[in-house]
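Hi,

I'm pasting everything inline rather than attaching a file, because the server keeps stripping attachments. The sequence lines come first, and each chain or strand is labelled.
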Amino acid sequence: MASHSLGQFTEGKVRNSQRGKMPLTVDLNYPAPCEDMVLNARFTWDNSQQGQDEAHSRSEPQASLDCEVIDDEVVIISPRIYAQAKNNSSRNLEVRDVPATNTEQHNGLSDVAAQTHLIPLHCHKRRRTLRNQAVLNWELHFSSEDSDENKTKEVPIPELPQSTPPPETPAFSCPICLGPLSEETSTKCGHIFCKMCIEASIKVQHKCPTCRKRLRMKDTIRVYLPTK
Amino acid sequence: MTSSSAASRKALSKIACNRLQKELVEWQVNPPAGFKHKVTDNLQRWVIEVNGASGTLYANETYQLQVDFPEHYPMEAPQVIFIPPAPLHPHIYSNGHICLDILYDSWSPAMTASSICISILSMLSSSTVKQRPADNDRYVKNCRNGRSPKETRWWFHDDKV
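And the predicted assembly:
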């Protein structure tokens, strides 16, 4: 467990240093073993967040300019507090717009106060820094897309994949419409039909078209047949 | 008789049309033994030639089946009759109506014209006597105004033939 958490951590550090802008965001001395989970969650959350911001940044290309200023601010914050706040906010994602009054309630607890005071500020900041990352990633993505397109242009695909699928498709057909199964649905007696077909059939007669077992609509279940 | 009832029948639904076209293709690829589909341009009415199976009472005899498909086929059974002269059989009336449960109460949407044909040939083949149903005259008299066999309240009492 301990070695695992360490591994996770170095990975996090590498990621941060790759971004180049804030090499000190993670304090190696700080995390207790139990912190492992939280950090993990944080990194994965960051990833998912990037996707959203990526789309966002396309519509606002000038965001990359703002980031220069913001990144300077980030460096000023001590890494420990940054980690704490980031940690804290990742637990409470919906608290993003917490009003100041809310943080004041916690003032009795000195430790918590130090963190919670940072939440609004930090959230604000992180959102923008992430936008910066997203821009960087977007460029990478863009270039990779480009190369993908080039690849597909070079490779002569056309006729092989088109000629192969037809024999695969008519593997199973619906006994009612005799066509390919659409939204294949099984009865409790194990016979498979199109959803529409079995619904229509049960309306007309309350029995399985194949084995005549008594059947209601609730006795059917949508099934997903393998395609290959 | 039947032509008048067919004329008043509604046209096939799109689902029925698709399914019948598939059945026809399947029939052409893999026709049931002893049957021949007489080609017409009418998808809704099939005329099928039946050859009595060898080794049975109906060997070397040929009959004609008329299959009329309803608007909501296959949710509803087709109307299947022999075009007179109908074979002499304890469950086949002289007007061509066939007393066979799968054509009425026991119809299932998973059945096809092909499977019906096989059932009818099986019914013919398992017959031990060539005779009309006991109530043939009375029944045929009642159907004189061109009533469809689907309107008959059939009583399926004999599962041996």
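Chain A has a mean pLDDT of 62.

If the labels don't parse on your end, tell me and I'll reformat.
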